[in-house]
Amino acid sequence: MAFVTLDKNKFKSNFDYLNTLFKKKGIEWSVVSKILSGNEIYLRELLKFDINQICDSRVSNLKMIKSINPLIETIYIKPPAKLSISGVVKYADVSLNTEFETIRMLSEEAKRQGKIHKIIIMIELGELREGVMGDDFMAFYKSVFRLKNIKVVGIGTNLTCLYGVLPNHDKLIQLSLYEQLIEAKFDRQIEFVSGGSSVTIPLIFQNLLPKGINHFRVGETLFLGTDVYNNVPFEKMHSDIFSLYSEIIELTEKPMVPEGVLGTNVEGEDFEFDQANIGETSNRAIIDIGLLDVDVDHLELVDKTIKIAGASSDMIVIDLDENKKKYKVGDLIEFKLDYMGTLRILNSKYIEKKIK
């Protein structure tokens, strides 16, 4: 059976590095835990750390977090769907919002549950994902401030996730100015200016982060040690907290070129093969994971002498060439994972999760 491991010592090291960085700069930060897909084993490791807030995009994951530590502040990090309103109010202390009608429903549900629900209103700064347009934000805040059982605790923005628009000093200054305008216009204190994410961290080192930005939401850099802005690992962080292992279930010397009329495979792909390889053979291993579990484009073989030959829904074929390392049936093939690879594999219920 395939399994993924989390190295808890490297995980703690990454957390401590970021926690120290943010504390030195007087920045509050929330861990974005969605990569863990609500896995209780891994969430318990995360909740051992000195954190005040956890963000997630699934109500069921927030429910799991609250069952482990009811006192942790939870944030639902996408605009809530109408059918999720009750769960969001029940399990999220804070939610990110962009639609007045949704906030109105949150207000009514919070009243039913006897709660004050906190919100961070997201502003559009060019990424064209979620966010209130700049021309509308003053009127938007005015309407929201009238709602009962709702407390506006922040203003925020999202960058990079959809089209790759990078944060810079000017965009984040703009976010800070929005916050100052709201406070001046409505005489309200806005606690969080949530303009930071993993991709914004390099601006701290470059002294380009405006002082007004006081809240970060961080996932990828914590779990993978990635400098997302430059798409390279941070030197002082670990990029191999997670490892994937899959067992060889067949190993046979086979031809290098398929025999028969070629159509398309399960993903609709066409293949061409080097005709010079007709009659040549190589050692081919089948391992017990497939496209149902992970996208092979987001897997990296630790052993650089072998390569992925192809994949179907339940199996991946590895070309061992001459099999110089003497792999055999039952041996494990190890992979490193990038962010999307980790996200997919941890979301698979067929992959066992272990602590290393």
UniProtKB/TrEMBL annotation:
The keyword Isomerase applies. SUPFAM superfamilies: PLP-binding barrel. Gene3D superfamilies: Alanine racemase (3.20.20.10). One of its GO terms (cellular component) is cytosol. Its cofactor is pyridoxal 5'-phosphate. Residues 51-225 form the Alanine racemase N-terminal domain. Coiled coil: none annotated. InterPro entries: Ala_racemase, Ala_racemase_N, PLP-binding_barrel. Keywords: Isomerase, Pyridoxal phosphate. One of its GO terms (molecular function) is pyridoxal phosphate binding. This is Alanine/ornithine racemase family PLP-dependent enzyme.
